[in-house]
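Lay summary. Proteins are chains of building blocks that fold into shapes, and those shapes determine what they do. In this project we predict the shape from the chain. Here is one chain we studied, written as its sequence of building blocks.
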Amino acid sequence: MKEKKILLAHGAGGKLSHDLLKELFLPFLNNEFLSALDDSAIIPAGTFKIAFTTDSYVVKPLFFPGGDIGRLAICGTVNDLAMTGAKPLGLSASFILEEGFPLEALEEVLSSIKEAAKEAGVMVVAGDTKVVEHGAAEGLYITTTGVGIIPEGVDIRSSNARAGDLIIINGPIGDHEIAVLIARGEFSLRGEIKSDSAPLNGLVEAMLEACHDIHVLRDPTRGGLATVLWEIANASGIGVVIEEDKVPIGEEVRVTCDLLGFDPYYLANEGKLVAFIPEKETERVLKRMRAHPLGKETVVIGRVTTENPGRVLLRTKIGGHRLLEPLSGEQFPRIC
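And here is the predicted shape, written in a compact code that computers can read:
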């Protein structure tokens, strides 16, 4: 029998990632908090609930248009907390440094961490450093952990989508992954695309001020919009229909995808959120989001149905339907 091994695709956030968690990690580590497989664990703590999350960053290259590994680490962890509605209390950051890594580059990363944390209104309150031999890492890896408080009356989970919910997103998809791709220089591409990496907790706070009854929030990072919608549809046991002509995709992203054969619905984002909201509350939420700097381009892209539970359908511009399944294999590894 051929020995089974970890593939790069296991880290792409798609079906293989999902299967790895379900078939290997959960049998050993399963509990009521981990099994939800949300962006953050929601843990009761006396009279309130806390959100707890951790993530590692191995992006290649370390610096790219619109950000770097430091900004990515802060924004990614803050956003995972925000997807439960939590207000971040503090972060930790652990650095694995390769022998020979330039101190000037480390200073630049730390400066980005400082600025992103300030932007998010959160502090890095604990940390650790380790140094490994030259060749044992690609310069720098960062692991961040975050803790936040969930406001009373807020219950946002992937399993909470309900029939009739409208689905909204706060802007164009795919900018982060294409920015990282261009920065690698592998395809001799040039462009003005920048990563959308940004802390979304302020935007989420504005949304909750407009409506406490937000059912689901997710940031479509690895695996992109299609994979996140599939995860929500399966967790909630509902169907999802989104409209091709409503999903915002920038022209440079669209052209790059056409040239290289990528599917924009599976591209990673680092400053976007998908929200499932009761239809009667949507206009009020949209108004608040569009008044926020990170929500100016917010649009409704679809709705929840009782038909085809566990499936995501894209209604095409010509009136047909395309089934969106989770990312299979690796579209583009090492993007966060």
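What the prediction tells us: The CA atoms of residues 1 and 71 lie 44 Å apart.
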